[in-house]
C-alpha cells in the first residue's frame, strides 16, 4: 500500500510539476501589460522557482525522472509563449536592431551615435527614436555586432528574439552534456531550462546575454572534451579543440564584458596540454573581432567608461557606501576592490583544493571549479552598482551544476527591481528607492544563513545518531 502511494506521488511530481509550471507561464503570458502587472508575474515566477527547487530535490532522490528531450521541449514551449510578446520590460533590443541594420548596410556601428548616424541612415529614424541613450555610440563589443546583424537579417524584433531563444536552447543542450559528464542528475537542467529568468529576459525581452551564455558554454564544452574513467578526469585534447575553446571564450567576452570574471575559472579547468592552444585561440579570435571595427570601436570603449562611472540600478551595496562616503566614485572604487579581493580568494582556494594546474582532474575538481565561478558571480551581483535582472542569467546558468539556496532566491528576488516599471509604465517617471534593493539582497542572504544553520543542525544529528561511526 505504501509503495503504491509512493509511486502515485512520484507520478504526480513527474506529470504535475511541468503541467503546473506551464499553467503559471500561460497565465503570465495573458497578462495585458507586464509593466503594469509586476506583482502578478513576479508572484508567478516565485511559484515556478519553488516548483523547480522541489523538482530538483525529488530528482536527486530518483523520484522525478524527465528525459532530456522532454526538458528541452518544455523549455522551448515556455519560451515560445513570451517570444510572441513585445519587449515590454526593456528597450535594449532596439539598440541591437539599429546596430545590426547599420552593419548590414556595410557601415561601422561604432562610427557614430544613432542620432548622429541618421543623416546617412534615414530609414532607421523610427528605430532610433526607441533607443535609450541614442546620443551615445553603441556600448556592445564586436562579437555582439555579428549577433545583432544576424538577428536583424531575420527580421525585426521577432527575428532578433528568435535567434536569441535558439541560442538559449542550444545552451541548454550544452549544459545537459556537461551535466552528463559530471554525473549529475538530468533533472538539474530544469533549474535553467524552465527558469523564469531566461524565459522573461531572453524570450520576453530579447537580451544579448543569451549569446554570451551560449559562447561561454561552447568554450566549456570544447575545454571539457574528455572521457571520465575510474582513475579521474582524463582530457583527450586536440589542438583544434583548444583553439575552439579559446575562440568561443573570446566571443563571449566580446559580446559582453562580464565573462572576464570567468577567465581564472577557465584557466583552472584547463591543463598543461590544452592551455596554450586555448590562449592562442582567445587572443587571435579577440584581435580578429576587434580588428574588423578598428579604430571606431574605441568609441564603444568610451561609452563603456561612461557606463562604468555613472550607471546604477538596484545596487544596495553601492547605495549604502555612497550614503556613507558621500561620493559615488569612492563607492565604486571600494566595491571594485572588494570584488577583486573576493574573486581572488575564491579562485585561490579553488586552486589549492584541486591541486593547482595538474594534468589529471576528477569529477569533484570540475564541480569545485564550477562552484568557484558560481560564487564569484554571486559576489559580483551583490557588489555591482548596476544590477539589472538579466545580469543574473550568468548565475542561473550555473544553477544546474552548483545551485544553492542563496542563488535560487537571488534568481527570483532580482525581479523586485522591476517595481519601478509600474510608475514608469503609467507616467513615464523612473523613480528608485533603497528599500527594494535591500530586499533584493536580504532574501538571498537570509536563505544562505538558514541553509548553513540547517546543515549545522543536520550534522549534529548525524553525529548523535547511533548508526553514525566516527572516522
Explain what this protein looks like in three dimensions.
The longest helix is centred in the C-terminal third of the chain and has 30 residues, at 435-464. It contains 23 helices and two strands. The protein has helices spanning 2-29, 38-60, 68-83, 92-104, 114-117, 125-128, 142-154, 156-182, 190-193, 196-204, 209-223, 239-253, 263-269, 275-292, 297-310, 316-325, 328-353, 363-383, 393-396, 399-402, 405-413, 420-427, 435-464, and strands at residues 226-229, 232-235. The protein is globular, with a radius of gyration of 23 Å. It has 471 residues and is mainly alpha-helical. The protein has a two-stranded antiparallel sheet. The model is unreliable at 226-237 and 465-471 (pLDDT under 50). Helix 4 crosses helix 8 and helix 17 packs antiparallel against helix 18 (363-383). It has one domain (2-464). 43% of the residues are buried. A hairpin with a 2-residue loop joins strand 1 (226-229) and strand 2.
Provide the fold topology.
Blueprint: H1 2-29, H2 38-60, H3 68-83, H4 92-104, H5 114-117, H6 125-128, H7 142-154, H8 156-182, H9 190-193, H10 196-204, H11 209-223, E1 226-229, E2 232-235, H12 239-253, H13 263-269, H14 275-292, H15 297-310, H16 316-325, H17 328-353, H18 363-383, H19 393-396, H20 399-402, H21 405-413, H22 420-427, H23 435-464
Antiparallel strand pairs: 1-2
Helix pairs in contact: 1-2, 1-3, 2-21, 3-8, 3-10, 4-7, 4-8, 7-8, 8-10, 8-11, 11-12, 12-14, 13-18, 16-17, 17-18, 21-23
Amino acid at each position: 500500500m505504501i509503495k503504491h502511494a509512493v509511486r502515485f506521488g512520484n507520478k504526480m511530481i513527474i506529470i504535475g510539476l511541468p503541467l503546473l509550471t506551464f499553467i503559471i507561464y500561460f497565465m503570465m503570458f495573458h497578462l495585458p501589460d507586464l509593466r503594469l502587472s509586476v506583482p502578478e508575474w513576479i508572484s508567478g515566477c516565485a511559484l515556478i522557482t519553488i516548483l523547480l527547487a522541489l523538482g530538483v530535490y525529488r530528482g536527486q532522490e530518483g523520484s522525478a525522472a524527465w528525459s532530456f528531450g522532454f526538458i528541452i521541449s518544455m523549455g522551448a514551449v515556455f519560451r515560445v509563449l513570451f517570444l510572441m510578446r513585445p519587449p515590454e520590460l526593456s528597450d535594449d533590443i532596439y539598440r541591437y536592431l539599429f546596430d545590426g541594420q547599420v552593419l548590414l548596410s556595410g557601415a561601422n556601428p561604432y562610427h557614430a551615435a544613432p542620432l548622429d548616424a541618421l543623416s546617412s541612415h534615414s530609414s532607421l529614424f523610427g528605430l532610433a527614436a526607441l533607443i535609450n541613450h541614442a546620443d551615445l555610440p553603441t556600448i556592445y563589443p564586436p562579437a555582439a555586432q555579428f549577433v545583432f546583424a544576424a538577428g536583424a537579417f531575420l527580421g525585426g524584433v521577432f527575428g532578433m528574439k528568435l535567434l536569441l531563444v535558439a541560442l538559449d536552447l542550444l545552451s541548454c543542450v550544452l549544459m545537459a552534456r556537461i551535466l552528463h559528464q559530471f554525473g549529475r542528475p538530468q533533472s538539474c537542467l530544469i533549474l535553467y531550462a524552465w527558469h523564469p529568468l531566461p524565459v522573461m529576459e531572453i524570450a520576453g525581452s530579447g537580451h544579448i546575454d543569451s549569446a554570451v551564455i551560449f559562447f561561454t558554454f561552447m568554450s566549456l564544452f570544447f575545454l571539457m572534451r574528455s572521457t571520465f574513467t575510474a582513475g579521474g578526469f582524463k582530457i583527450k585534447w586536440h589542438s583544434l579543440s583548444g583553439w575552439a575553446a579559446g575562440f568561443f571564450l573570446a566571443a563571449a567576452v566580446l559580446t559582453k564584458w562580464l565573462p572576464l570574471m570567468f577567465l581564472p575559472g577557465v584557466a583552472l579547468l584547463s591543463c598543461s596540454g590544452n592551455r596554450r592552444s586555448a590562449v592562442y585561440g582567445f587572443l587571435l579570435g579577440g584581435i580578429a573581432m576587434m580588428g574588423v571595427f578598428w579604430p571606431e570601436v574605441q568609441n564603444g570603449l568610451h561609452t563603456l567608461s561612461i557606463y562604468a562611472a555613472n550607471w546604477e540600478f538596484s545596487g544596495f551595496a553601492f547605495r549604502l557606501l555612497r550614503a556613507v562616503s558621500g561620493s559615488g566614485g569612492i563607492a565604486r572604487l571600494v566595491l571594485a576592490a572588494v570584488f577583486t579581493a573576493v574573486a581572488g580568494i575564491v579562485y585561490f582556494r579553488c586552486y589549492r583544493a584541486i591541486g593547482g594546474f595538474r594534468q589529471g582532474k576528477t569529477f569533484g575538481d570540475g564541480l569545485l571549479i564550477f562552484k568557484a565561478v558560481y560564487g564569484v558571480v554571486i559576489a559580483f551581483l551583490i557588489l555591482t552598482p548596476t544590477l539589472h535582472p538579466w545580469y543574473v542569467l550568468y548565475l542561473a546558468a550555473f544553477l544546474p551544476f552548483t545551485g544553492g539556496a542563496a542563488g535560487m532566491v537571488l534568481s527570483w528576488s532580482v525581479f523586485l527591481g522591476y517595481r519601478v516599471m509600474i510608475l514608469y509604465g503609467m507616467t513615464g517617471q523612473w523613480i528608485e528607492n533603497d528599500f527594494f534593493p535591500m530586499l533584493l539582497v536580504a532574501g538571498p542572504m537570509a536563505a544562505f544563513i538558514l541553509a548553513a544553520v540547517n546543515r549545522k543542525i543536520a550534522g549534529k544529528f548525524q553525529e548523535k545518531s547511533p548508526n553514525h561511526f566516527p572516522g
